[in-house]
Amino acid sequence: MIRRTTAAPGGLTFLRTATALQTLTLFFQAVTAGMLLTSPLAGEVHHIGSRVMYGASMLYVLAAVLAWRPGGGSARPALYATGFLLLASVQVVLGIAHMPSLHVPLGVVMFALSTLSLVQALTPRLPVRPAARP
């Protein structure tokens, strides 16, 4: 039986796409949060965007698990995605509770973390070379 030590290319493409979608939805949420200051209609757009962002976070978990288990990749992205889904859940609760003093900074942190995850997913990995023997 041959055991794969790296993730299948298709699994990584899905993971990269899900990470990019999550990052874009978080950016959209930041834009609509800013629009709340000037437009009464922005509240509804932000509310709808929160549902899309939460769905994108769930898709990120699915992509990370598929890249890990059947794809043979690292478990680290699945752990990150699960933690991110927890943060998204807290973010939704804080938004519903109208606690902007916690909701806004957590949104900034989530966007930063998602951007870092996207950069990591898009950065090509160099193969590890064995150490030279003296």
Question: Which key phrases capture this entry?
Answer:
134 residues; mainly alpha; 4 helices; elongated
Brief rundown of the structure:
It is built from four helices and no strands.
Write down how many β-strands occur, each being a DSSP E stretch of 2 or more residues: 0
**Amino- and carboxy-terminal Cα gap:** 34 Å
Q: What's the Cα radius of gyration? A: 18 Å
In DSSP terms (H or I, runs of 4 or more residues), the helix count works out at 4
Overall geometry comes to elongated
Nearest-integer average pLDDT: 87
Helicity, in percent? Answer: over 70%
Task: Describe the overall structure.
The chain is mainly α and 134 residues long. It has helices at 9-35, 42-68, 76-96, 100-122.
SSE blueprint:
Layout: H1 9-35, H2 42-68, H3 76-96, H4 100-122
Helix pairs in contact: 1-2, 1-4, 2-3, 3-4
